[in-house]
Amino acid sequence: MGILSPNSPNIRLQRLQKNALLTSVPQGLTLVLGDILSLILSSLAVVSLGGWIQFSGLSFQSIVVWGALWVFWRAYQGLYPGYGRSPQTELRIHVISTLQLLVVQLVAALAVQRLIYNASAIILTWIFLLPIALVVRYAVRSILIKFRSYGRPISVIGAGQTAGLAIAHLCSNPEYGLNPIAAYDDNSALHGTLIANVPILGSIELALANPKTSHALISIPGARAEIQQRIVNDIYGSFPHTWVIPDLFGVPNQALRPHNIGSVASLEIRNNLRSIQARLLKRLFDIIGSVIGGTLLIPILIIITIAIYFDSPGPVIYRARRLGKNGRNFDCFKFRSMHQDAEERLQQILDSNIEMKEEYEKYHKLKEDPRVTRVGSVLRRFSLDELPQIYNVIMGDMSLIGPRPYLPREQEKMGAMVQFISQVSPGMTGYWQVSGRSSSTFDERLDMDRFYITNWTPWLDVIILIRTFIVVFAGKGAY
């Protein structure tokens, strides 16, 4: 009988799995505690309403039982610790799992009690839990990330362009919980160099012989099919967790759904925004959101109107022609943030300053813009100049979330992207606003708008809306 050496494949695999558990279990338990705290806060919020709600179903035993079921259901769906979940996927699981428990508890109460005396308390508890649990989860995870205690280390197999993009995205978005620490490639010229600040340690054979992590991300989309098959099978046998980036670069990735046709794997690519149901849902979201938001913002709108009126001569609101859905131009309403002779001022500065001319040609904006008024600079910093576009949303010219509203004269620079982007209504905010805002180049904005259109889901819209509030309140990246 042979004796397994400490470096045998089975022993290494067991060691990697053990290390992975020692990493993921404490992080998952921390997030569980956050959810328990959220449940307590939600229950206290309902109890505090007292007086006009029946609380017969909010006993301690009821909260413990249904809270435990909620936590177990979320654990089954992979939210503890939830590595590798995109923000919109995580949001979808969070909302659906919570609403499912709400329905189940209501049905159980009806079956047991015949009449639901405590329906209001049950519904309010879960409805309060939706935002509270999301905020607490984000806060707990942010603390873990700050102390470098969230995520698992991963090895990247391949060091090409796609691998670099994947590594850069994971490093700039630590909430994914996948932390690249090593890369491997059979190109010996790359050994000892860095890819997106991650060291390329050696060949793929080295990764197989001495894996440093339990998770491998294979990124060799350009390799021939037989080579990919061999590498995937080898890596799969050496790493407990294996992900593969397929040769589908540029294809909508949020709309992919795996299917099996016998022993053959296939991917369904959904075009969500072509669905009539999706368009109706998006329009309904726009109307409800703009009406409620516009009503709540009335005091702020009045204050801004007064400030603009006394700051500089000219109308408070101006109309800017923008490229709309199906190539139709429309009047986009904004609070005036510039002087009335803005175009003359712009031409003078572009004629006299080469550096500012180059900046304007690259970003179509100026950081130190002589056209902007004192009040206008504040409005632009926090994107308050765009609030009148709520009217455009109500009228159907715009959406709350969508591509950037482009100028008609920018169509030539947009090229073939004009028809693609004009499939949908432009948005008050969008993917590019929360990803780069004014620091993004024109071509980068086009790429971001293309990503949004091809990967749209209602959950992506909600994530963009949440991030918009964060970016706007921080005054980040706008001028």
**Number of helical segments with 4 or more residues:** 18
Q: Which spans of ≥5 residues are poorly predicted at pLDDT below 50?
A: 1-6
Termini separation: 73 Å
Kindly state the number of beta strands: 12
- Spatial strand sequence of the major β-sheet: 3-4-2-1-5-6
Calculate Rg over CA atoms. Answer: 27 Å
Overall spatial form: globular
- Which bin fits the share of residues in helices? 40-55%
**Beta-strand residue fraction:** 5-15%
Order of helices and strands: HHHHEHEEEHEHEEEHHEEHHHHEHHEHHH
**Count of spatially separate domains:** 3
Class based on secondary structure composition and strand pairing: alpha/beta
Give the biggest beta sheet: 6 strands, mixed
Task: State mean pLDDT (0 to 100 scale).
Answer: 86
Summary?
This protein has 479 residues and is of the alpha/beta class.
What distinguishing features does this structure have?
single chain; 479 residues; alpha/beta; Rossmann fold; 3 domains; six-stranded mixed sheet; two-stranded antiparallel sheet; 12 strands; globular; disordered N terminus
Tell me about this structure.
The protein is of the alpha/beta class and 479 residues long. The protein has three domains: 9-146, no CATH class; 152-249, NAD(P)-binding Rossmann-like Domain (Rossmann fold, 3-Layer(aba) Sandwich); 276-337 and 372-474, no CATH class. The chain has 18 helices and twelve strands. A six-stranded mixed β-sheet has the order 3-4-2-1-5-6, with helices on both faces. A hairpin with a 2-residue loop joins β3 and β4. α9 packs antiparallel against α12. The protein starts with 8 loop residues before the first helix and ends in a 5-residue tail after the last helix. Residues 1-6 have low confidence and may be disordered.
